[in-house]
Amino acid sequence: MTSRRQRFAERRKACGFNQEEFAEAVGVDRSTVQRWENGKTGPQPWQRPKIAKALEVTANELESLLVPDAYLLPQPPSGWISVAPPTTDDEFDAFELTRRVSASDVGKETLSRLENAFDELAMKYPVSPPQELLERVRKHSAYVAHLMDARMTLAEQRRLYVVGGWFQLLAATLHIDLNQEHASTARLQTAATLAQHAEHREIEAWCYETDAWRVLTDGDYGRALELSQVAQQLAPVGSSVEIQATAQEGRARARLGYSTETYAAIDKVQRMSAAMVLRKGTEHHYQYDPGKSLAYTATTLAWIGDTAAETYAREVIARLAPADDIHKWPRRVASANIDLALTLLSGDRLDEACNAAQRAILSGRVVPSNHWRALEVVKAVEARQLPEASDLREAYQGLKALPSGDQGA
Q1: Which parts of the chain have pLDDT scores under 50?
Q2: Which domains does the chain show, CATH number per domain?
Q3: What is the SS3 assignment for 196-251?
């Protein structure tokens, strides 16, 4: 596929310009032309008529040279719900047409379509390979960045900052799933900056909650507790992020061995989630729902060593597992099987525990950021010198060898 840099540069060369000559023709520095062709920035609206004239293209044709690159996505493995990646820029051509017929260079309809696209991708999160979903999120984030220099009203600017913040936040979550720490940190910082400019405390709270999960997976349970508490302070009362941050606090306290506080957090989450009014799809990653409450309770109880985790884990599996095909499981089912295995091991139900762990690992639904949870089960089985230990270790090594796009949690 021809990249943005190639499209723009090839048109410039076809018109007989080198970079320096083109810069002089449109009244900018050569370094500015380089940034346009590298895709780092786009021309200001007032510069575009002169550029179109120099390149002998219409305004629409110029926009097609400047729209962020499309991504060719890998075919998903059997069982994943496809994100239906486009093979052309049709989706973004439609965004551009909508934008151009609006009163401003952005327009309410363009913003609405971006907001709907975010909701769609957030609902794909539980069942899509993280690398595949990340490519779509990157593309939409690039398009938001492309619009940042456009003419717009203050209200439109705030909406653009908000939807840009959501895309950055979802991208950060996917980077965490893939153990891409530096990228996740940068995305979270960008999301928080956009949220602060838009005065959108919900996104800002999600940034702290998401970072709490990231450091928890790294074993920094004290820091995870602090971040989850900051998230709760920022979160709008009764919001999904307030509930999620409270659940994250419970998980951190469970890892620290604070049983009384852990049970208090579980009780609070259950009360708050029972009062939730669902406004988006139940699988929306940023919408707390009863299914998430079950899954978080199962994990938290398993970590605190409470055998009641078995009941919650089995309910998650019963609700979400499609028939008996482990390759069609949503992420929560794999996690619930890990919780179930840990609980069964503590009760010396060894055969059942090994079976649950094996199913979770072989499902391919455990993302890199959750490998440590599967490894806890493997090590527990090995410590007991069970005959299934070698098979479980082999399955775990196979899981680690999977390409990132083939895994989910």
Answers
A1: 1-2, 69-87, 404-409
A2: 1-64 (1.10.260.40), 304-406 (no CATH)
A3: HHHCCHHHHHHHHHHHHHHHHHCCCHHHHHHHHHHHHHHCCCCCHHHHHHHHHHHH
